[in-house]
Design a protein that fits this description.
The chain is α/β, with parallel strands linked by helices. It folds into 2 domains: 9-19 and 35-157 and 315-385, Response regulator (Rossmann fold), CATH 3.40.50.2300; 160-288 and 416-426, Response regulator (Rossmann fold). 47% of the residues lie in helices and 19% in strands. The chain has 17 helices and 15 strands.
Length: 427
């Protein structure tokens, strides 16, 4: 031997696909087409209680499409890796999916602080399309506007601007004159913390302090004490359950108000159980919402039938749509398409001028026929009629919710028109 060859999972997969094509041609194709498998990747936080249902919902979408015949005649295998809501772990997981599994599509991540390093250091350099269910930082928008996402980034969750505006609206509606802000010190937390402080100020509400919390600290007493100095009437929390539980316990023990406004990241049984419902009676939360549409109702019905409970956790409808839209784009791009080629087909499967299709196996089957004939389809999903702008962003209605003995209780639905009008007034 005069040299050696580098093993390439992508080349191997391509070679296998060519082999399948040859065998199918030789044997008539029917049996062989059923034996091929195409992998997609998912980096989601399965080690936390609220992350498991997000991953299960993505798999639910994959299962429905596989039952309908798969993508381009091949079954889809979703290779799932845990992010632990940790940027380093998430990047390592994404690299493994690209380098070892040869994926061209990645679902994930949850948390902008995890999605951002995956995007900049893994998916964009590797030409992999990334579709996130649950990353809201407006930093992604700026990155896309600068051309640095290369058209490979999409998300089915509205930007942090919606939750920040709704949080400020809540404070005004409750009559609070002063609010302190505690936020997670990552891409998402910095973004929403800055936005909500600006929106509160725009409504004439004093922001008595804006304090960042870092991961992994044994105590947040110093940060909570700093936030208490201004004696706020209420507190806004942009935290995940791990640091949220520790911070709220400190807050209450030091005499802080129970008037709390929380982002959807604390829409968690873990948070309630470890803080105590008795301390959360004045807590109101914000979230983006599915529109009051038939397609959203259909998702709730199918999810409830599958899992035995309604999809009340954060990001579930968004996770379903992320998986469905990504797989529709793979179908439109054709067998063996690259990540960039798949990303380029997103517009064809979310085209308002296209043939409407439902968010289920029957809808996917109908889409296959339309796409094969050269037409476009308009996906009617769990979050409504999904449309992405040039930056891969979507808009969404909002919901105000509370904790109760029954679980999460919806208090108010804010339509997309009302959300947009309120944000326009703020700006």
């Amino acid at each position: 031997m005069t040299g050696s060859k580098t093993f390439s999972p992508r080349l191997t997969r391509a070679s296998l696909m060519l082999g399948v094509t040859f065998i199918a041609a030789s044997l008539g194709g029917a049996a062989a087409a059923q034996s091929c498998t195409t992998k997609i990747g998912a980096v989601l936080p399965t080690s936390v209680d609220w992350g498991k249902p997000i991953a299960a919902t993505a798999q639910f979408a994959v299962d429905q499409i596989n039952e309908a015949g798969g993508v381009n005649g091949c079954q889809i295998e979703m290779v799932l890796r845990d992010s632990q809501v940790d940027p380093k772990v998430g990047v390592d997981a994404a690299k493994a999916l690209v380098d070892l599994d040869g994926i061209d599509v990645l679902l994930g991540a949850v948390s902008s602080g995890v999605s951002m390093p995956i995007l900049t250091s893994v998916t964009v350099p590797s030409g992999v399309m990334q579709m996130s269910c649950c990353s809201s930082s407006t930093v992604f928008t700026g990155l896309a506007e600068e051309g640095k996402t290369e058209g490979l980034w999409f998300r089915t969750f509205a930007t942090s601007g919606v939750q920040a505006a709704m949080g400020a609206k809540l404070a005004a509606d409750q009559g609070y004159k002063s609010v302190a802000v505690l936020y997670k010190n990552d891409d998402w937390g910095q973004d929403i913390g800055k936005l909500v402080a600006e929106d509160l100020a725009a409504l004439g509400i004093e922001v008595t302090g804006s304090v960042a919390l870092n991961d992994g600290q044994p105590s947040y007493r110093a940060e909570v004490t700093e936030a208490l100095r201004g004696k706020p009437e209420a507190i806004y929390l942009a935290l995940y359950p791990k640091e949220g539980i520790a911070a709220v316990r400190e807050w209450i023990s030091l005499g802080g108000t129970q008037n709390m406004i929380v982002a959807n990241s604390l829409k968690s049984e873990e948070f309630v159980e470890n803080v105590g419902l008795q301390f959360l009676g004045n807590t109101l939360g914000t979230d983006t919402a599915s529109p009051r549409a038939a397609s959203a109702d259909a998702f709730v019905a199918s999810y409830t039938e599958k899992f035995g409970s309604a999809p009340t956790g954060p990001g579930l409808a968004n996770s379903y749509d992320a998986a469905m839209i990504a797989l529709l784009a793979m179908q439109a791009a054709g067998e063996g398409a690259s990540g960039a080629e798949i990303a380029a087909q997103i517009g064809r499967v979310t085209n308002p001028e296209g043939t409407p299709i439902t968010a289920d196996g029957a809808g996917f089957t109908a889409a296959v026929e339309v796409l094969a004939g050269g037409g476009d389809v308009f996906y009617q999903g769990a979050t409504g009629n999904v449309q992405f702008d040039a930056n891969g962003d979507v808009s969404a209605p909002a919901v105000i919710w509370s904790f109760s003995e029954e679980g999460i209780t919806e208090e108010e639905y804010v339509s997309l028109d009302d959300v947009n009008a309120f944000m326009a007034d703020l700006n």
